[in-house]
Amino acid sequence: MSTENSKFKDFNFAEGELLLINKPYKWTSFDVVGKIRNSLKPLKLKVGHAGTLDPLATGLLIICTGKLTKQIDTFQAEEKEYTGTMILGATTPSFDMETEVDETFGISNITEDEIYAACKPFIGDIEQYPPAHSAVKVNGERLYVKARLGEEVELRKRFVSVPEFEITRIELPEIDFRIVCSKGTYIRSLISDFGKQLNNGAYLSKLTRTRSGNFLLKDAFEVLELVNYIRSKKEEAKTQAEV
């Protein structure tokens, strides 16, 4: 992305900017926040994100700066869209590739019709449990901390909405999908439950957030390109001040 791209502009980070970021694979959402906050130094600004993405997920992350951080809850509440890939015929404790496969199942008798039909129970208002390996807090402690220590965790079900769940490619054991859902939906849990619906197992192997509210991934910045742009503007301002 060139710095001449029309998406770059003269930002006012103190007053507040809403930044659309394409979160890289294996970065945490807080890694992105920290990278942008550091690039803004010596300005001491609030920087936050509107909706966590798991480290193994990629895609749209909304970052707010300055006074706009007060609106984070509003942006976070918006409907989300994801695309991804699941692996049918196996499960993992984390419901994704963070942990090793712990159980396998035969898939030779599962038909495409059965796969398409298995989506239907998950469309609409549903209830689900968050993964044990998740950032949900119970008694002030993150579930994934307890899970990694091998401690028993009490999972509390939540109610979410899934207006759309479609299968876009079947090439077993891989199945591609697209999901539109409400705030708080755990795609990993949905995929795990999808496997159970087929009397089988499934885990998430790839996930990308493509939309949050009316904001689209195609309009997002790459993290390092935005950071480099911010730094170049700071150097430019410094040079002008010295002249």
From TrEMBL:
The active site is at D54. Signal peptide: none annotated. One of its GO terms (biological process) is tRNA pseudouridine synthesis. Its EC number is 5.4.99.25. It is an enzyme of class 5 (isomerase). Residues 46-187 form the Pseudouridine synthase II N-terminal domain. SUPFAM superfamilies: Pseudouridine synthase. HAMAP family: TruB_bact (MF_01080). Responsible for synthesis of pseudouridine from uracil-55 in the psi GC loop of transfer RNAs. Belongs to the pseudouridine synthase TruB family. Type 1 subfamily. This is tRNA pseudouridine synthase B. It comes from Pedobacter miscanthi.
